């Protein structure tokens, strides 16, 4: 269904090196509007670095990134404007610990978008409602469970009206019984047409939600295609092995 | 006379003499302060109600008042009760009493951080409470207290300058006398500052070496 | 004994005036240290290489030299050299404040670093500028974490303020010495000075811990509670 949709995000030949180790060796892909792209791969394969290169939290050594036809890379100023439009959800939540859930969601609206406080509050409240946390609006991060924290951080990203949201292993820091509620929220976002790039180890989720799965190893894209292509009919022996191992390790998710 | 010659010929000789006095002050005060601090800290944690109370009052009083007041009481106050000390002795007594109060705080914290099981295990082996404290608890506690106590010792190196306030002519005092005589404060006190920086650096490196020597893998 | 009480009775108003001077001196020095210390801490964490080196040198200098030597150096030396004709009170605030900035910057730096990188990354990912992130996200948390260290700094400066006796600043000790010499009753006078300092130390610390309770956020800054 995304076939004729415009391209939202275009990543071209991204390279990144830390000292001796080359973490990313030329990664390229595009994301169309409404698409959910899932990135999988072993730990240390450069997935998180790749996400951070997209919104320039890490500056790539080489390569370019476009958001809706505008180049994000190689600009010194106004990167903050792009970051508003590229939401990010972190593995360890990174909620602002001195602010309530509601204030966490509204602070970007007030300080970055310059929205007035009343409007911002209303919007923030609606986003919390959307992730099922209206009763927790006035609690501080330390008073929330891990799953609730991650849902607040998703609401915080959503409130900014991003063109695309990047998820960096959103469930990896969660206790197993809390993973479901967060995946549920992300899945609903996918269904509602949000454009997303998700790094995850949750294969069941990847299989049921992804329009395309990208398999990265050693800083390169090794395989990519629809869930069917990768799970049923992988091109590479490596992909098969990885998928087998990871399913063993993490078990089958509830989606299967 | 230009600055360098002035410093070399006029300033440095008395400053070196002063430095020797400062070092002498420290050689007496640092170990005695640490020992008294250990006794008071131990008294606070393991003493009976009266001892623990007295040690706590001691700490509150000496940590709550400036060292300068303490020195004034010892040097100018006590003679009115018929107790006389030389400036040097008064300074050493003040430094020992004051630094002990700060040390005791770290020692106490370290004792309290040692898990209950250590004492129980020692007593289960048949050690008396005293034996357990000396052989099992203390060796662990002192290592944990060391970083804090090190800081305190470095403070003492700097606060030893207050000895001059009770007329004991150590480094700062010697400098003040020269500076006043020749009216060249900036140069003289920059040199003094440099000497203190050197002393502080040497002492803190020595303490670091000691901490490393005493370190036990996984402890502290 | 009676004479002692009389001496105290007569000295007390005079010493209390000195206490007001001490409080002013400490408040001024703490404020100056705060105003300088916070930007120093921020630059030590987020600044460029050169600014970091300069600040490290500043901190090393002011922390490594005794407060008495600093007072002499600045009051009789540098301030005169610079043509500044400062009262002992202003000089005291400046020297204690410059020195406190060195200590306070280390308190705040530690707090900022204890927050971890994630808070900054999350702020930037929302589109905040670095300055917005520091102002809205980093500082409100760092200051809360710093409060216990800051209260300790108050008690240290209060006690160090007594050393301004050496430049004749009319605070508690200078007045105490003056009266003790005149009345020949040093013991009771100095004990009263000690008592005043005790009250100021623990009174101030108590006030600051009340403040800490007021700005406390559930599960934050008091590790071990919350999850």
Count of helices of chain A? 9
**pLDDT < 50 runs, ≥5 residues of chain B:** none
Please identify the oligomeric state. Answer: heterotrimer
Give the beta-strand count of chain A: 10
- CATH class of chain B reads Mainly Alpha
Q: What's the end-to-end separation of chain B, in Å? A: 55 Å
Runs of chain A with pLDDT <50, length 5+?
A: none
| Average pLDDT for all residues of chain B | 92
Strand segment count of chain B? 0
How many structural domains does the protein architecture of chain B include? 1
- Determine the mean pLDDT of chain A: 90
CATH homology superfamily of chain A: P-loop containing nucleotide triphosphate hydrolases
CATH architecture assignment name of chain B: Orthogonal Bundle
Choose one word for the global shape of chain A.
Answer: globular
Order of helices and strands of chain A: EEEHEEHEHHHEHEHEEHH
Percentage beta strand of chain B:
under 5%
Can you say what the CATH homologous superfamily of chain B is?
A: MetI-like
The major sheet of chain A is characterized as: 6 strands, mixed
Task: Describe what is shown at a glance.
The complex is a heterotrimer of chains A (256), B (220) and C (227). Chain B has helices at 3-46, 49-64, 67-77, 87-113, 116-124, 129-159, 171-182, 185-214. Chain B is an all-alpha fold and 220 residues long.
Would you kindly provide a written description of the structure presented here, covering whatever features stand out?
The complex is a heterotrimer of chains A (about 260), B (about 220) and C (about 230). Helix content of chain A is about 40%, strand content about 25%. Chain A is of the alpha/beta class and about 260 residues long. Chain A has one domain: Rossmann fold (3-Layer(aba) Sandwich), CATH 3.40.50. In chain A, the strands form two sheets. Chain A has a six-stranded mixed β-sheet with strand order 6-7-8-3-9-10, sandwiched between helices. Chain A has a four-stranded antiparallel β-sheet with strand order 2-1-4-5, with helices on one face. In chain A, helix 3 packs across helix 4 and helix 5 packs parallel to helix 6. The model of chain A has no long low-confidence stretch (mean pLDDT about 90). Chain B has about 220 residues and is an all-alpha fold. The radius of gyration of chain B is 21 Å and the shape is elongated. Chain C is mainly alpha-helical and about 230 residues long. Chain C has a single domain, classed as MetI-like (MetI-like fold, Orthogonal Bundle), CATH 1.10.3720. Helices cover about 80% and strands about 0% of the residues of chain C. Chain C is built from eight helices and no strands. Classes of the chains: A alpha/beta (about 260), B mainly alpha (about 220), C mainly alpha (about 230). Chains in contact: A-C, B-C. Chains B and C meet through helix 2, helix 3, helix 7 and helix 8 of B and helix 2, helix 3, helix 6, helix 7 and helix 8 of C.
């Amino acid at each position: 269904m995304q076939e004729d949709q415009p391209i939202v995000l275009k990543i071209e030949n991204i390279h990144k090196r830390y000292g001796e180790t080359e973490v990313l060796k030329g990664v390229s892909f595009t994301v169309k509007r409404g698409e959910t792209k899932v990135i999988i791969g072993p730990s240390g394969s450069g997935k998180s670095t790749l996400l951070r290169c997209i919104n320039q939290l890490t500056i790539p050594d080489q390569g370019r990134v476009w958001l809706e036809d505008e180049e994000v890379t190689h600009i010194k100023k106004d990167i903050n404007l792009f970051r508003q439009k590229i939401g990010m959800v972190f593995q360890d939540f990174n909620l602002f610990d001195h602010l309530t859930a509601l204030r966490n969601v509204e602070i970007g609206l007030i300080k970055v978008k310059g929205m007035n406080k009343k409007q911002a509050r209303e919007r923030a409240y609606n986003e919390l409602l959307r992730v099922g946390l209206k009763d927790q609006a006035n609690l501080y991060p330390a008073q929330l469970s891990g799953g609730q924290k991650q849902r607040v951080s998703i609401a915080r990203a959503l409130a900014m009206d991003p063109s695309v949201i990047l998820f960096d292993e959103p469930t990896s820091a969660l206790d197993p019984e809390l993973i479901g509620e967060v995946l549920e929220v992300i899945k609903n976002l996918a269904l509602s047409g949000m454009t997303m790039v998700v790094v995850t180890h949750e294969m069941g989720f990847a299989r049921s939600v992804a329009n395309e799965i990208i398999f990265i190893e050693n800083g390169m894209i090794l395989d990519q295609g629809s869930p069917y292509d990768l799970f049923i009919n992988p091109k590479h022996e490596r992909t098969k092995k990885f998928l087998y191992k990871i399913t063993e390790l993490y078990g089958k998710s509830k989606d299967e | 006379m230009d600055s360098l010659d002035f410093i070399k010929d006029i300033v440095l000789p008395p400053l070196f003499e002063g430095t020797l006095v400062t070092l002498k002050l420290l050689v007496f005060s640092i170990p005695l302060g640490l020992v008294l601090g250990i006794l008071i800290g131990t008294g606070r944690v393991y003493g009976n109600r009266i001892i623990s109370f007295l040690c706590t009052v001691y700490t509150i009083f000496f940590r709550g008042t400036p060292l300068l007041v303490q020195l004034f009481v010892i040097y100018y106050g006590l003679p009115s009760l018929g107790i006389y000390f030389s400036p040097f002795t008064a300074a050493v007594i003040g430094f020992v009493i004051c630094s002990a109060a700060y040390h005791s705080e770290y020692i106490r914290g370290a004792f309290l951080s040692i898990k209950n099981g250590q004492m129980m295990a020692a007593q289960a082996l048949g050690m008396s409470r005293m034996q357990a404290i000396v052989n099992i608890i203390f060796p662990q506690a002192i290592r944990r207290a060391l970083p804090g106590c090190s800081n305190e010792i470095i403070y003492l190196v700097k606060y030893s300058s207050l000895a001059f306030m009770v007329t004991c002519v150590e480094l700062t005092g010697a400098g003040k006398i020269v500076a006043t005589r020749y009216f060249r404060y900036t140069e003289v006190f920059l040199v003094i500052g440099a000497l203190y920086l050197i002393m502080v650096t040497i002492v803190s490196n020595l303490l670091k070496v000691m901490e490393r020597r005493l370190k036990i893998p996984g402890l502290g | 004994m009676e004479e002692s009480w009389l001496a105290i009775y007569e000295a007390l108003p005079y010493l209390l005036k000195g206490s007001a001077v001490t409080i002013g001196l400490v408040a001024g020095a703490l404020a100056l240290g705060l105003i300088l210390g916070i930007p120093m801490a921020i630059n030590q964490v987020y600044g460029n290489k050169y600014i970091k080196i300069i600040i490290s040198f500043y901190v090393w200098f002011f922390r490594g030299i005794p407060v008495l030597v600093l007072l002499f150096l600045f009051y009789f030396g540098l301030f005169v050299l610079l043509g500044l004709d400062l009262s002992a009170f202003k000089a005291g605030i400046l020297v204690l404040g410059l020195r406190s900035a060195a200590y306070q910057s280390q308190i705040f730096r530690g707090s900022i670093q204890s927050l971890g990188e994630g808070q900054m990354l999350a702020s930037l990912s929302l589109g905040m500028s670095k300055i917005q992130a520091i102002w809205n996200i980093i500082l409100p948390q760092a200051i809360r974490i710093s409060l216990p260290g800051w209260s300790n700094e108050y008690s240290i400066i209060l006690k160090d303020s007594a050393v301004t006796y050496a430049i004749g600043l009319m605070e508690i000790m200078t007045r105490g010495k003056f009266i003790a010499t005149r009345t020949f009753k040093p013991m009771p006078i100095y004990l009263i000075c000690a008592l005043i300092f005790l009250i100021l130390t623990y009174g101030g610390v108590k006030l600051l811990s009340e403040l800490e309770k007021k700005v406390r956020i559930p599960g934050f800054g008091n590790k071990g509670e919350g999850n």
